[in-house]
Specification:
- There is one protein chain.
- By secondary structure, the protein is α+β, with helices and mostly antiparallel strands.
- The protein is built from seven helices and 19 strands.
- It has helices spanning 22-27, 142-146, 187-207, 212-222, 232-240, 259-271, 276-287; strands spanning 29-33, 39-43, 54-57, 59-60, 65-66, 76-79, 82-85, 90-91, 99-103, 106-110, 118-123, 128-140, 152-162, 172-176, 225-226, 247-248, 294-299, 306-314, 330-332.
- A hairpin with a 6-residue loop joins strand 17 and strand 18 (306-314).
- The radius of gyration is 22 Å and the shape is globular.
Length: 333
């Protein structure tokens, strides 16, 4: 019996005869987003080819915005006499400074002055952390190099985790900038919660008889609807009024939320996927920046202000299910 899409764990399987084809694996990329404007991304070889690649790239509060906190993980598996490297880098010649503090098996690093610290731990609590600070010189990002962009940097590491993994016991490395209590969750509980969220997300289109391709498109659209993570005050104002702030990311890896791109894609991302409440929330987010009938194009990191304007006009598509904020959608002109 086929396993429903919403209950599958996404895996990537590589045939043995292709694992030696480095060029092919470096040319194919993966990205996973977190619904808060952040993401994780790399190549299938798990060797970064862009400066925007990273295993943990959260959208920090303004003025930092999207920040590469963990550019890569150097994963090594040892079994009996065999050692397998699961990731790597290309070398050729940047800097990262950080101060590591440890309390009861939990580790914090202050990477950006004033920004939330990076918190690291293993779940379940096991293994040990080996303090072995070192600097990797001359890491090269080939795609940036080929485009004539800055492509060389040095990366520092405070050390590494070491843990035993068995068939019966998996281990997760947790990285976060949220409150320490939120790191106490079991990884299995997080995966289960995400599975339930996806089931709920797909329910409207399944009710309409969507096939698996359409379901995948709905999940792809979901990657771009996010909480405006870097504008904390916007979230607070929305919650105070009993709502949830939402916006639309124009694209990964570097684009933030742009008014023009949001209005162009709003119908396909939200109305066609049955996400009417999110559509209303997105429109309310941008409505807060409308001036003299003009919608802001993009937001500056330094403050809640936005730059560049775009004239808006109503169009005729019916959106009565969104609510009173938008009886007619808005598009750029």
């Amino acid at each position: 019996m086929a396993v429903p899409l919403a209950h599958r764990i996404v895996t990537v399987s590589l045939p043995c005869d292709r694992t030696q084809d480095e060029e092919s694996l470096l040319a194919r990329e993966w990205s996973v987003t977190n619904g808060l404007g952040g993401y994780a991304s790399s190549t299938l070889l798990c060797a970064p080819t862009r400066r925007y690649h990273g295993r943990f790239v959260p959208d920090l509060p303004s003025p930092w915005g999207r920040t590469v906190l963990i550019p890569r993980l150097e994963e090594v598996v040892r079994a009996d006499a065999f050692t397998v490297d699961l990731s790597g880098v290309e070398f050729e010649d940047g800097r990262v400074d950080g101060e590591l503090t440890a309390v009861e098996g939990r580790y914090d690093m202050q990477l950006c002055g004033g920004a939330p610290p990076l918190k690291l731990c293993l779940r379940p609590s096991c293994g040990l952390f080996v303090a072995d600070a070192r600097l990797s010189h001359g890491i090269c990002y080939r795609l940036d190099r080929d485009r004539g962009a800055e492509h060389l940097e040095n990366l520092s590491s405070p050390g590494y985790f070491q843990a035993d993994v068995t068939r019966e016991q998996s281990v997760a490395c947790v990285a976060s900038t949220e409150a320490r209590e939120q790191l106490e969750c079991r990884p299995e509980a997080l995966f289960e919660a995400e599975s339930h969220r996806i089931v709920k997300l797909l329910h409207p289109v399944r009710a309409g008889g969507a096939d698996e391709t359409e379901e995948r498109l709905v999940l792809a659209a979901d990657q771009f609807i996010v909480v405006p993570g870097s504008r904390v005050e916007e979230q607070a104002l929305a919650r105070a009024s009993g709502e949830e702030a939402r916006t639309v990311i124009a694209g990964y890896h570097w684009f933030t939320d742009w008014g023009r791109d949001t209005m162009i894609s709003l119908e396909g991302l939200t109305l066609c996927t049955g996400r009417h409440q999110e559509a209303r929330s997105v429109l309310k987010t941008f409505a807060g920046y409308v001036q003299e009938g003009c919608c802001r194009i993009f937001f500056q990191r330094e403050s809640r202000t936005a730059s560049t304007i775009r004239r808006m006009r109503p169009c005729g598509t019916s959106t009565h299910s969104i609510g009173t904020i938008a009886r007619q959608p808005i598009e750029t002109c």
